[in-house]
Amino acid sequence: MNPLADFIHETPPVRVVFRPGGATTATAGEAQRLGLRRLLVVSGAHGADTARAVADSLGPACAGLHTGARMHVPAEVAERAVAVARAVDADGCVAVGGGSAIGLGKAIALRTGLPLIAVPSTYSGSEATPVWGLTEHGAKRTGRDPSVLPRAIVYDPELTLTLPVPLSVTSGVNALAHAVEALYAPDTSPLIALTAEEGVRAMAGALPRLAADPRSLDARSRALYGAWLCGSCLGATTMGLHHKLCHVLGGTFGLPHADTHTVVLPYALAYNAAAAPEAAAAVARALDAADAPTALWRLAGDLGAPRSLAELGLKETDLAVAAAQTAGQSYPNPAEVTADGVLALLRAAFEGGAPKPS
Question: Which of 16, 62, 148, 251 is 20 to 30 Å from 325 at the Cα level?
Fold first, then answer.
């Protein structure tokens, strides 16, 4: 699609505060601005200490702390958190942490209509989207609803200083996937194309720097900036084959979210590159490379990220099932999605070699 031929772009109402130390100095101010007085703070177990510090900074406006977030937001986990929000009579929610915590905050917002404030501590970019996801009966389903888009996002790069390098890399490549798919989405626009390319450039430039010096606030800030841009792209466009495939691998087979995105992305782009040459060229420009899929594969691998689905625990016998599930869904994608095509993509990702054109 030529983005200048025909497009619609809608800018959602979200306020972004980007500030080192902002998690404990700006969150309370954002809550006050929104008129919220009884906030439930949610996080995962690993981010509980940070969430507690944010909760303390809210003072009497904190109605409770719930640390039960889990990967892929199991339905029973969401139901438990909703019950807690109702029990404490919360009038808003603050989600502190990575994609799992943000996802749980969105589930609460979806079920209750409570306004959400996001304080992300990874680079997933989920906080910048109206996309929610829930896993139930071994399948992950997603949707879009304006009620789950945070009313405010507090980006504090200091929260990411202790994020381990391996998780930083996979989280960052997960964000890159949002921008890559936005470039060839049917509902892209000139603004999204610019944002996506800059998001890829920012993130791809930041990851090697933070891997070399994990305590570099400048590199961490640059990565968080890239995550915001990439997440904003996902929030404005429709997901294609890459995201649908990762949702199947995560929801049905329990593969880790960011690692799965990292492994699959180069192969998904290779699958679509011939059908979306302008998008592939934009990614290549942002990476300062001749071939975008190979450059993505090399970027992640050189920084120690997993390169194969086999490393993540997927069994070879699972490939055909995952391919059939992915091909059986309906969604827009530049290249035709067939069971045989997806199976070939999955087999290449399972083996982990350099991606080849589809």
Answer: 148
Q: Which pLDDT score, from 0 to 100, does residue 116 have? A: 98
Q: Which amino acid is at 127?
A: E
Burial of 117 (C-beta count, 10 Å sphere; 0-12/13-18/19+): buried
Contact 104, 141 (CB under 8 A): no
CA dist 119 → 96, 126, 221, 232, 291 (Å): 5, 11, 14, 15, 35
> What is the DSSP-derived secondary structure letter of residue 189?
-
* CA-closest candidate to residue 247, choices 233, 234, 228: 234
Phi, psi of 118 (to 5 degrees): -110, 135
Residues 6+ apart with CB under 8 A from 355: 266, 267, 269, 270, 293, 294, 297, 348
Cα(42)–Cα(104) distance, integer angstroms: 8
Nearest Cα residue to 298 out of 345, 329, 259, 262 = 262
Q: Determine the Cα–Cα distance for residues 83 and 218; give it in Å rounded to an integer.
A: 40
Residue 358 above 80 pLDDT? no
Q: Where are the alpha helices (DSSP H) in the chain?
A: 22-25, 27-33, 48-58, 75-87, 99-112, 165-183, 190-212, 217-236, 241-251, 257-272, 277-287, 292-302, 319-327, 339-351
Instruction: For 173-218, write each residue's pLDDT tens digit.
Output: 999 999 999 999 999 999 999 999 999 999 999 999 999 999 999 9
